[in-house]
Each structure stands twice: as C-alpha cells, then as structure tokens.
Amino acid sequence: MARVGVFICHCGTNISGAMDITRVVEAARKMPMVVTASDNKYTCSEPGQASVRQAIADNKLNRVVIAACSPRMHEPTFRKAVAAAGLNPYLLEIANIREQCSWVHAHDRKKATDKAIELVKIAVAKVIRHEPLYPREVPVTKRALVIGGGITGIQAALDIANAGHEVVLLEQEPTIGGRMAQLDKTFPTLDCSACILTPKMVDVANHPNIRLITYAEIKEVRGFVGNFKVEIMQKARKVDHTKCTGCGTCWQKCPEKSPSEFDLGLGNRPSIYIPFAQAVPAKPVIDTDHCRYIKYLQWVADGEQGKKPPECRICEKICPTGSIAWDQEPQTITEEFGAVVVATGFQVYDHRHYEEYGGGAYPDVISGMQLERLMNASGPTGGEIIRPSDGAHPKTVAFVCCVGSRDQAKGRTYCSKVCCMYTAKHAIMLKEHDPHVQCYIFYIDVRAGGKDFEEFYLRALDDAGAIYIKGRPSKIYQDGKKMIVLVEHALMGRPIEVAADLVVLATGMEPRTGADRLAQKLNISYNTYHFLVEAHPKLRPVETQTDGIFVAGACVGPRDIPESVAQGSAAAAKVVGLFSRDALVTDPVTSVVNRDRCIGCLLCIAVCPYKAIDCETTRDKRVVAVVNESLCKGCGLCVGACRPKAVDLRGFTSQQILEEVNSLWS
Amino acid sequence: MISAVSVIKPQPDTKFRSFVEAHIGQSISQCYQCGKCTAGCPVAYTMDLTPRRVIRALQLGMENELENSSSMWICLSCLTCSARCPREIDIAGVMEALRLATAGNKPSPSQKKFRLFHELFIMSFQFSGRAYELGLGVAYNVLSGHLLNMVSIIPGMLRRGKLACLPHRGQGSDIQGIFNRVDALKRKNNEQTQSSKP
Amino acid sequence: MELTYEPRIVGFLCNWCSYAGADLAGTSRTNYPANIRIIRVPCSGRVDPLFIVKAFQLGADGVLVAGCHPGDCHYSDGNYHTRRRVGLLRPFLDYLGLDKARLRLEWVSASEGKRFSEVVLSFTDTLIKMGPRSS
Amino acid sequence: MIETDRYAYYPGCCAKASAKEYDATTRLVCQALGIELVELENWVCCGASSAHSVDKLLGITLPAQELQSAARLNLDLVASCSLCFSRLKIAAHELKNENIRNQVSEILNEKIPANPRNGVKHLLQVLESHMDKIPLKKPLKDLKVACYYGCLLGRPKEIAEFEDEENPQVMDKIISRLGGEPVEWGFKAECCGGSHIFTRQDIVLKLSHRLLYQAKQAGADCLAVVCPVCHSNLDAMQKSIDAEYKDKVDLPALYITQLIGLAAGLPVKKLMFDKLFVDPIPLLRRKGLV
Questions:
Q1: Same domain, B50 and B115
Q2: Are residues B184 and B126 in the same domain?
Q3: C10: which chain A residues are within 8 Å (Cβ-Cβ)?
Q4: What is the mean pLDDT of residues B28-48?
C-alpha cells in the first residue's frame, strides 16, 4: 500500500508568484494514496530537505512527489534527501512546475495553477507504481588495449603504462612506428622524424607495463566498459621470436626480393625481413606470398604441377638459433581489458585513381610519401633524390596539392590538412639537398593555420624560392624525358604548361582499409569515408558512444603529428580516469525481459543501439532475450519494439506511462 | 555614391545565371575556382574568357562580358572540363547554355563567324536532310570572306571522291516538317511561359 | 464553436533534447499556451503507439511526440524508430475517425526553447481551429 | 539490349562523302564477323555539332527520330561516328525527362516510350563483343598502333556509358587481338579540334598536330581512328599541319575497320586505303602486311 507525500515548492516567488500554491496543496491532498501534502519556500534548501525527511518519518511515507523545478535540476539532490530518510532513492518523482509551468504561464494565474495540479497528479500516478531500484556495481579490469602502433597509439600506451596500468599494444604490421616512421623530416621544425620517434618505440618495447603484440589483428570484441573480452588473431610469422635474436643473417642472405611496402615500391626487401632498420621488434617475419620454400610447399601440395620451383630454405640453414618455424600457424589470443583505445591512423590516398595524372603509370609521378622515402638517408636511394625512371637528378620539380582531397569527383570532399605544409616542407628540403632545384607548387588554397605554419609557408616562398601557382592541374603527360603539367595560372587567367623532371602529388589522408570492419566489431560509428566518429566533435573528441572505447589520432580525421600525440594522451587520460575506480556504478534504469512472455522474435536485439540484448535458451527449450544491464542505457527502444510486451523499462514502465496519461482524465 | 568606372558591382542573382543553372541543373556557386577546367581545355588558350573566368563572371553577374565573349562559341564541347571538374560542375553544359542564351542576340564581332557557320550548317541539312559538306564549305568561305579556307585539301577530297558535288538526299525524310513543327512548338512555349532566356 | 474551448494536449518529450528544450523555454520565460501536459520519457523511441492511442481514447485533443533532431539522438538512432512508428500510426488515426493533424511529431533540441514554445503555440492554434473532437 | 548480331545502323552524313571508306569497311567487316547491319530508312543528320548549340529542342529532336526508327525495328542502334553516337546518347538521356519527351513526341507526332527497350552503341562496342570471331589471317605483327578514341566517345561518363573517360581500352584490346601492338600514350581522349575545321582551322591544326606528335613520341607507326571528323582532321589535314608547324609527321591514320579487315585477310583493295590522304601502303609493305 503506497503512502505518498507531496511537497510543493515556492522557489521563492518563482513558482508561488505565478500560481495559487494553497490550491495546489489542497488538490494534492485529495489525490489517491496521498497521505500528506505541504508547501515550502525552498524545498532544495537544507531546512526544506529536513522537512521532507521529517514528513517521511512522521507519516511513514514510502513514496515522495516533489513539485518544484525541473528534475534535470534537482532530482539528484532530492534523491539524496529521500535516501537520507531511509527510502529507496528511486521512489521519488518530480513534478516540473517551474520551468514547464510557472515560468511559461505567468500571464494566466488560473491556468498555471490548474496545470500545476495536473502535473502533480501525473507525478503521483507514476510514483505510486515506482519499484525500488538498486544501482549495480561492475568491477573494472585495469588493463588497456591500444589498437594501432603509430605515434598516437605509442603515446597512449606509454601514458597509460606510466600511470601504472597494464597495456597491450596491438599492431597489424610486423613493426610499430606507423606512418611517422616513413617520414624523413617533420614540419614546421624540420627535425628528423626517426630521431624523435624511434626512442619512443624503444621505450614501448622496454616498458614493464606494456606488452607488444605485432603482426596481429582484432578478431572479435565482446563485453562492455570495464569488462571487454577481445580475441586477437596473431598472424603466422614463421619465425619463433622467443628464439630469434634478430641477428639479421637471414634477411641478408634471403635470395627472393619483392617490392618493399615500407618504401612504397621504390626499393626491394627480402622475403624474410624487418620493414626498416630501427623496427621494433627487430625480429623478422616471413612473407608467405613471396618466400620460395612456401611456394615450393604449395607446388607440392598442388600435386607437383609444372616446373619444380627451388626449395631454397637458406634462412633455415643459416639461422644460428634455429628460429625458423615453417609449421607456425596463425593463433588466437584471448585477453580481457577494461578499456580500448583505437588509434589505427591513416593510409596515403592511392593516386592511381587519377587517370588524368597518368593513373600511376608514369614512374616520375610520385606521391609525397614516396618523396619522403627518396629523401630519407635510410631510404632506398640512401637519401639521394633521383627520378625513379632513369636515376637522373631532377632540377625542376612540380608539386600538385589536393590529390585525393577536396575532390568530390573522386569521392574525397574533405581537406586532408597536412598536405599544404608537407609540400612546403618538401620544397624547402629539396632546395637544401640541391640549390639548383626549382619547385613549382600548384595549389587551390594554401592552408597554413597552425603554430609557425604561416612562417613555414613563407620560408618555402622566400628561402626555397618555390613558385606557388594557384590552379589545379588538369593533366600530366610525358614528353620525352619531361613530365608536362597542364594547369591554369588562375591569378593570371591563362592556361600554362610546366615541364618538370619530377612530379610529386600531395596525396591526402584516408582511413586505413578495414577501419569500418574494426568499428563494427567495436560497435562504434564511422562516417562515409570510414573515419571513426567521436562522441562529440568538440566536447568529447576522444570518446565514442560506446563506453570504455576511445578513439585518437588520424583514424578520426586528418591530423598532424602534434594533434595525434595530444589525442593519444587525451585518450590515455580518459582511460586512466576510468581505471581510477575499482568498480563502475551502473544506472538501474534499464530494460528487463519477462521470460515467460518473450516469444523469442528478438526484434529487440535488432533495434538495440548498444548490443545490450542477447538471447539464450530456457530449460523448456525456448529462445528468449536477455538484457545485459551493464550495456543497457535505458533508452527503451526495445520496449517499443516488443510485440508481446515482454520487455519493459525500469523507472519508465508502460504501466506507469499509461497511468500518467490516465491521471489526466481521472 | 561616386565610384570608379572600372568597379564591378557583383549582382549574384541575374536572369542569365538562373537560365544557365536551370540548363545544367546545378548551382554555379559550387565552383571554388581551382581552374582545372581551363587547365584541361584544349582551346582555353585562345578564349577571351577562360572557362573558369566564364563561371566567375556568372557568379558575379558580369553579363556584358559574357554576352560579348566568344568563349562559348570557341568551346569544342569536348567535355574535358566537365569530366575532370572536382566539384562535378557541367562546365561544357554552361557553355552550351550560354550559346543557347545568346543565340537570339545580334552576334558580337568576335562571335560572327561561329554563328554564321552554325546557321549555314543547319541550313545545309535543313533542305536535303543531310549535311552537304562541299556546299557548306563554299557557302561559308564566301560569306565569311575566308575564300581560301581549306582550298588546299579540296582537290584531294575531290580526287578521292570524298566530296559529293550535289547534296545527298535522305529520301522521304520529313526534315522540313520537323523544322517547322519545332519552330511552331517553340513559339507556342514562348507565348505560354515567357522563356527564361535573358 | 464556443470561444472558451481549450484543447487538451499530451506531450511525450524525450529527456535529452525536447524536455530540456521545454525547460529552456521556461528559463528564458517564453510564454506558450497552458494546454499541454508534458510526460517525460527517456527517448522518443520509448513512446509506444499504444500510449498515443490511449491518450486519444481518453479524450486528448492532440498528442505531441517530440525528440532529438534526426542524427542527434542521445541513443544514436532512437528517433528514427519514432519517425517510422508515428508514420505507421498516422493512417490508423483516420480509421479511428481522427484528423491526422491531431498527432504531431516534432524535433526539438535542448537549445530550441523558443522553437518548443512555437510548436506548442501553433499546435494549440491548429487544434482550436479544428474545434472539439466530434465523438 | 535485344539481338546481339543484328543492329540498326546509322551511318551519319560523312559516310556518304568524306568517310566513304569508313562506311564501306564497316559494312565489310561486320559482314565478315556475322554482324547484320540494317541501315535506317530515310535517316537524317543528327545535327552535330550545330543544332544543339543554337536550338536545344532541335538538337534533341533530330537524333530522337533516329532512335524512334531503331525502336520500330526493335534493334539496338549503332553509330560509327563519335559525334553522332554522342548526340544519340545525349538525346536518349534527355528523353528520360517527361516534359522534353512530350514536346518531342508532339513534333514527331508519335508517342516516344519512357524507357525504350533498345539502346545506342558505338561501332567499337559492337566490334569488341564480336572480337573473337575475327579470322586472323594476317596478324598485324609488330605494327605499333596508337589508338585514338577522341573526346566524345566516353563523355559524359554517366550518359555515354562507354568506358574510363581518360584511359579507355576497347580499341587497344582489339588491336592486340589483331596481333598488333597498341602503344601507351596519354592523348587517347584529347580533342582533335572537331568542327572548327571551318571556323578556326588554326585550332584544328594545333590540336591535331599535338595528337600526331604525341602518337609518334609514343613510337606509333600509325593511328587507329573511329570517327570521320577526327579522321579528316588527322589524315586530310596532315599536309597543312606539316606546313604550319614545319614538321614531317607522316603518320597514317586508319579506321579501325580497315585494320580489322587487313588482319582478317579481306581483299586489300576493298579496304580503300587509296581514300586516305596519308598513304599507309609503304608502312604496311614494310611490315609485310600487303
């Protein structure tokens, strides 16, 4: 039997000024199950709360209605007050008679009063049917998973680890370092990329709290904030890293060379390899697509069709530690984590989509990243800038901005943000390499918004003497040894042709292939370009709509190095904040399934935005839905979708809402 | 207010512009003036307004410049501009629209010979049903005053029997009827809704 | 039609956008007709068509369902479900002999206090013009 | 798409004069490949490149009535001239618009269907689909051919429904099929100057010279062409080009049909090489093809 107490607040004159409080109190007294109704100048004040507590005790109240300001304002306050009086804090209902009554109907005292009375009526109708609710506590596994071993992931991993928590850093390639490792220098400071990156890579490798898993991918993610269960697929390296010392004999002797991914096809690498000299871990993997012995085994498996390929196995013969493990297969590792940081970064836009620029057919039309490799002392040319076609030293170099950016026709409307600056960098560095080089830079707009960026751009103009020409080239073609660029000098309003020895396309950023599939596994959203979507672009930039999963760096959108590092640290801070608690309190306003009513249509699973509903088979072999209350956020979508009305939402049950409607006519 | 003679007063919404935008079904303001159209245009080098500047003129409502320009008549309709525009604007369509929009006007000096050619070309098949190259060539040369235009190849053409001395007839084709009915329908449309041409 | 006719409106407002919007209308003191009675729901997607029908059955002159703008749903896509459900319910109103215009679906964000009051005002006006339900 | 070896054929005005050899060899080759061409009755000019420039409605109506006659035959319509092809395709596209469709129907006084069953093809597409049927009597061994598609064949992409606008491959495939070597070059789809031959010859000379020069740069022995207008600019005008640019281009431009005919071992004189301004015989003799 419910015993309801109604407390009407004057809120100074904010409420009482607009309505006849006494009439509201009188009306409230007559409402069903209402034992007592009283008014108070400031219910939220300590004396006000005291009087509520007193009334609860005096009248043995087990339900409370407070008619005052919006529940969005003081619901927490009054819940505490009610709890202090020994009641379950969820046995409280608030009638919003300030924001939604007195303040908007001040012009009509009678109507305001009538409305206030009905609002109280609604609240009473609902509170009567409140059940006590109990927040649940879920433990937090204080281990973090960082996906992506680029500069962002490295930063996040180090920060979390330094805060004293275990971290697993996952990388799909054989080494960490990401795109930054491929860069020669960084703008606008021109400091050597490797010099600032590789120490951090080593720190990761040596950190007691960090476990590095390279050459591996996410297979499946289950669970919820504080309690993720992740299946990781470790690709087969065919090399036993527990034995391997990384002495390098194998990759020096391996006879089968193929184009190096790290050098973007400008150089070759053996089939047992580390991507670059400072790779971490500095232990090789075998490229099963090219390795001769693997090919041989395949030939045997195919029934020895055609010519017998060489058996090779040189690496195995010369390996001093016997680390070559031909029988090594991919294996699945299952780990538990409390939080996940996604830092999968970007890949360079593939300029082969630009048929008008040769569609990748011209060897002397290269991407900015390829130029980085050509300029790099440890690159395929030992830092000598030469034309891929004939090894000549280019004297005239043309740069084309916005390739794969700001181009709707190529399905890439966004600005990649870094190209303007790295092009300026290239112009400056080419001049440093060879004072006789003349750079032409074709741009639409030069975007130099950032610390010291404008100065850097001016440096390209003044010191490097780069000629900036406003205009997007329409065609690049070969004429003898020269590459001809057709462009309009837009500011002169004249079409011009520039004959260059080398053309560098400032290709933009796009998310890593597969970013969308990863996002689906993690149940976070991504945009049309497959950039991941943050919880709020301004106020929650590293959070996602799934608790416990954070995003950072260029997988969210084009970012330069400082931004990526900052985001890595930001995500780390969020993770550490999460780990500062031993348990998470979950809101008890969640869905609940009546197993007897459930017909197992599982529509609820389809509509649930949080994958919070799963199904199981009952003892009598019926499939029924079950709600994971730790994942459920209490939106009630499932309730609306449930045909047999088997699902209901605690605190907002269908019966309660129907009674609220009812009360308006009873 | 006194303003220098040279000052352009942008009038973004002109009848001219709305005609063009209606023709291509796109908004001219999409253009961010990168000049890729001009860069790829095989004849931009000889235009008084390059394709990009034609669009700019439309954006700014500089109608005189456009009306007196011969750019749209020099345009080859090779569609390279439209094919490569990063904003997917149909620039060739804009040129066509400008031709249609100005086809009725008195041709400016720079437009004369192009307009003449098109009139003669249409005439050349209006009667026989099929284009009559020799007749067209001769008529054009005489009327345009370029008497020696292409004479170099005419003998070769004749020797190879590549120039019919008389128009070739598409028997029984009702070409004249089509022309008449097209004109009739156009007149009807104009009466109904004042055409949006400036 | 008598001048004193006061339509009764039941408003189901989602907690995160529209209810907050209604609060904002209050804090910025923008008056609107007192004909609406607001029922708070976590998400407009929680609104079961049954609630709406029930309200009409009891005699409501109008029902307002308000949620976050498409794409802004606090629960990512609840309001899309709302849109579909209300869309499915509408034809059914005819069947009940109710004018479709008596059911309104509006998107009101937490920052659109002004808009909320306008919605209520226009809805109330429409209902007054329609006059009382003929039952 | 209805029948695959029977097509309505729209020769185009040039076929009757400046491109006699194209028309003739087209019929010849199609016959050899078992493709039946049904020439449209009383076809008239498609209006290119003037009608659509000065009179939208006329520019659509002219091709529209050819589309209608093809529809009456219930056959796909084939054009061998890229300009005609383009006008026909564009007209077919414009006719999807109801308002335009009604106007044109009124002019032609017959109802034009909203979505006709038959389509428009360029000769090249037909030849490709019958490529394997080419009897390879005289492979064009080490004949380096620059395939020139011209600007209109693939544009606008969504209307022409042809191939990649910048780097089409059909003709190159055919040449390879004939045992020849298609050369890679960047000007497959650049404009030759088109109809400016009358009004601005200088433009035609400049653009065509650019094409011929580039083809030679790429090491081509000759050009393969699929449009009479392009052809006359590249072939008939070559003397004037040499004169204008103090060059000695001497690059035969053959119609793809002539090359197919040659490889298929059709009688050489039927291939009408004598109609060309730049005599290909010396080249073909050098390559031992005649």
A1: no
A2: yes
A3: 661, 664
A4: 96
Of B68, B102, B136, the residue that ends a domain is B102
Q: What does the pLDDT read at residue B170? A: 59
Residues B130 and B93 in one domain: no
| Mean per-residue pLDDT, D134-159 | 94
Question: Considering the entire predicted model, what is its pTM?
Answer: 0.84
Contact across the interface for A444 and B52, Cβ inside 8 Å = no
Q: What is the pLDDT of residue A36?
A: 96
Tell me, what DSSP letter sits at residue A468?
E
Whether chain A has a CB inside 8 Å of the CB on C34: the answer is: yes
| B53: its two tokens | 């500047």
Residue B138 contacts D where some CB pair is shorter than 8 Å: no
Q: Is residue A535 within 8 Å of A543, Cβ to Cβ?
A: yes
Under CATH, what is the fold of the domain A348-510? FAD/NAD(P)-binding domain (3.50.50)
Rg, Å, chain A Cα set: 33
Q: Which residues contact B61 (CB under 8 A, 6 or more apart)?
A: B10, B11, B12, B13, B14, B16, B17
The D residues from 190 to 209 touching B (CB cutoff 8 Å) are 190-191, 193-201, 203, 207
Identify the band that residue B7 occupies on the pLDDT scale cut at 50, 70 and 90.
low
Domain span at B141:
109-190
Give the closest-approach CA distance of B39 to chain A in angstroms: 4
Q: Residue C1: pLDDT band by 50, 70, 90 thresholds? A: very low
Alpha-carbon span D228 to D6, nearest angstrom: 23
Could you tell me the fold of the domain covering D136-286?
A: Rossmann fold (3.40.50)
Task: Give contacts of D109 with chain B, Cβ < 8 Å.
Answer: 181
Q: Are the Cβ atoms of B125 and D240 closer than 8 angstroms?
A: no
What sign results for the dihedral spanned by CA atoms D125, D126, D130, D136? negative
Q: What subunits touch chain C, counting only 3 or more CB pairs under 8 A?
A: A
- Dihedral over alpha carbons A79, A83, A89, A94 (to 10 degrees): -40
Contact with chain A for residue C10, Cβ under 8 A: yes
Answer whether C touches A (≥3 Cβ pairs < 8 Å). yes
Q: Return the pLDDT at A177.
A: 97
| Count of domains for chain B | 2
Q: Which CATH number fits domain A587-650: 3.30.70.3270, 3.40.640.10, 3.40.50.10740, 3.30.2310.20?
A: 3.30.70.3270
Task: Collect all residues of chain D within an 8 Å Cβ-Cβ radius of residue A356.
Answer: 166
Positions in chain A short of pLDDT 50:
none
- Contact yes or no for A105 and C47 at CB 8 A: no
Domain regions of chain A by residue span: 4-128, 143-234+335-345+523-579, 249-324, 348-510, 587-650
pLDDT tens per residue, range D84-96: 999 999 999 999 9
Read off the pLDDT of residues D194-252 as tens digits, 9 standing for 90 and up.
888 888 999 999 999 999 999 999 999 999 999 999 999 999 999 999 999 999 999 99
pLDDT at A562: 97
Judge: B140–D198 Cβ closer than 8 Å, yes or no. yes
Is the predicted pLDDT of residue B2 greater than 80, yes or no?
no
| Residues contacting B2, CB < 8 A, separation 6+ | none
> Do residue A474 and residue B50 have CB atoms under 8 angstroms apart?
no
| Pick from D184, D187, D217: CB nearest A480 | D217
| Residue of D19, D106, D240 with shortest CB distance to B185 | D106
Nearest Cα to Cα of residue D230 among D214, D248, D253: D253
Interface list for chain A against chain D, based on CB atoms closer than 8 Å? 355-356, 358-359, 361, 475, 477-480
The reported pLDDT for the residue numbered B133 is: 78
Q: What is the CATH number of domain C9-129?
A: 3.40.50
D154 vs B110: CA distance, rounded Å: 31
Superfamily of domain A143-234+335-345+523-579: FAD/NAD(P)-binding domain (3.50.50.60)
D187-202 per-residue burial string, b: 16 or more CB within 10 A, e: under 16:
bbbbbbbbbbbbbbbe
Q: Which residues of A577-593 are buried (b: 16+ CB within 10 A; e: fewer)?
A: ebbeeeebebebbbbbb
Domain covering D6-124: architecture: Up-down Bundle (1.20)
* Model confidence pLDDT, tens digit, residues A310-336: 999 999 999 999 999 999 999 999 999
Query: ipTM, 2 decimals?
Result: 0.82
Chain B residues lying within 8 Å of D155, measured CB to CB: 78-80, 82-83
